[in-house]
Amino acid sequence: MQTKTKTKKWVLFRHKVITCLAYLVLYPWTKLKYHIDIQPAKELKKRQCVVLMNHQTAFDQFFVSIAAFPRPQYFVASEDLFNLGFLSKLLRWAVAPIPIKKQTTDIQAVKTCIKVAREGGSIALAPEGNRTFSGLPCHSNPAITGLVKKLGLPVVIFRIEGGYGIHPRWSDVCRKGKMKAYVSRIIEPEEFADLSKEELYDLLQKELFVDETQNGQEFHHKRLAEYLERAMYVCPWCGLAEFHSEGDIITCKSCSRQIRYLPNQRLQGIGCDFPFPYMAQWYRYQEDYVNRLDTHAHIENPLYQDTVMLSLVEPYKRKVVLEKSVRLALYGNRLQMGQRTLFFSDCSVITVLGKNKLNIYHADGLFQVKGDSRFNALKYMNIFYRHKNQMAGEGTFLGI
Asked: For the chain, what are the domain ranges?
């Protein structure tokens, strides 16, 4: 007689216990570090739901899980979180996050979400999949609408405001200021059942939109501009350039013009008129500049060069360091890493992780590049997508 194999459950009682214990430690630490006002969603105590949040800080998931919601949330998390050896195993055991490949439509992640929902679990994710570099929301994968419709659960919109001012993605320091996080709306299944995917996508985009340049607050620190070069590489006077930051000032290495980052998040030229009042406008100009770039004109000489550490990633298992220090060169159609040449035509996805890491999904495997504290990974991803769009003859999406 054939016996059925018992399916391993994803939703477990211990996740609720661990969430309660984590609250006791992490909630006071979160209040101290981020000065955040988190409004608990007590009305959702007994309701299963899908939580959709905008993404501003590295701690956003904790704002949801330890303070706002009285039941465990199963977070959809970047696969890089699952390549950390023992720590990854501990996270899987303690809170069971759902792994997903960034910038892709990951069918396995969708299946896992459905499994969690069938077991009575609630799911939380940031449709952007990326923390903002500019203060404006990043691109959201339209596939989120298909997932929402498949699950058929109430959609809880969780807004985070002030996070970019407190801790921009490109910075290592938290500034003194205030932020808040709260449930702004609950969209019931019957509200979106008859909406098309396009209509639902537009609705979610509208509800999750947060413009951090217009919050009227001030955020104070001695090093307001430090590591801004992780995000910016186009100078309005020089074009493609490199920058160096110190304190509240960032300097273009080519023309030596300087910009000061003010506590109210405005940008101010020093001895010159800087054309962009906020990071969002400068960042948009940078994207527009890259979208006009002819990558075919840059295949002989490198656009940029950096010294990095190169690793080979075994997805959901581990990372193996291939070279601790190798010269990385960016061309219009390829990456050169020592003796390795990775043509963009052989790459499916290039994505930025955290502040200074780059994942390269290549025919030969998944490579990860990590630079020093001032490394700008963004430019490598942007140029890759610009080349991809140019070859296709359409598109302006630059990877984030």
From this structure: 13-211, 228-292, 298-392
